[in-house]
Design goal:
Helices cover 53% and strands 0% of the residues. By secondary structure, the chain is mainly α.
Amino acid sequence: MDGQTLARIVAIVFVAVAVTATAVEMNRKEEPEVTEPKVIAPTALSPLREGLRRCQGLGEAALRDRECMRLWAEQRDRFLGLKTPPAATSSKPVAPRSLTAPTPGVQ
């Protein structure tokens, strides 16, 4: 047997093994891992969470509600890790600037 014939036989065996392994893998049924959902122990609900739920229920009207603006600012500060909220967000909500109104000090 010469080298060329041996190489062809090895190549055919390799392809046959690869096709067989692929067919077996495609037909194998994987069982999804069943994990227990993590249950958070019911603790005293925070006033912040309850207020945010109320604002969520208000929908678009929450944009005009002062309490919702305060709660959102507090939640944002907690998320960003700020220790004390800036004075501007704790006292009153800041209205967005109009694109058509001139900016003071800019010409």
